[in-house]
Amino acid sequence: MADILSRLAIASQRSRGLRSSQILGYHDEERLRAFFLSFDFDQRRGYFGGGVSDQSIDKYCGTIDWDHTTVIARGGPYCLEAAAILTSLPPSHTAAEPSIACPLLCDHEPIIAELLDLAIDVAALRYGRLVVNRELADPDLLASLRENQAARFGCEHIEIDLGITQWRISAG
Length: 172
Prior knowledge:
Elements: H1 2-14, E1 20-24, H2 29-37, H3 41-48, H4 54-62, E2 69-75, E3 80-88, E4 95-101, H5 109-126, E5 129-133, H6 139-146, E6 151-153, E7 157-161
Parallel strand pairs: 4-5
Antiparallel strand pairs: 1-2, 2-3, 3-4, 5-7, 6-7
């Protein structure tokens, strides 16, 4: 865990301006809600897989099981700017599904790569593998995963075996 905390600190130092990387908890639910509510229609469709109302986002944030969900966020001086969410998969909770949201109007690849690296470090402590839904995966995330030999591509999912090797995502 100390390694992850130091990686969060290093990621925060690399980000320009007053940005920090942190693991959110149940007490940060309002910040996460405000983050998702700031998405425009296309961003909501891209992340959630369809148009989602404010009420649906409110319900989603209110029903997060914080015992089985880890949120790693990149925060700016005023609000959250991007987030990686790890949700453990039942019944055994030995795998997690990551999702990454970055609504910023800039080059997403370095932000997504950094968040994915942090998510993998967190997941390596708790899970044996990550399972990514290809349909909902961000294009920059898919590009980063294609470069890694620990990722196996199936028809619907990409599976990352966290026990194969320690690895890092490279940003363009």
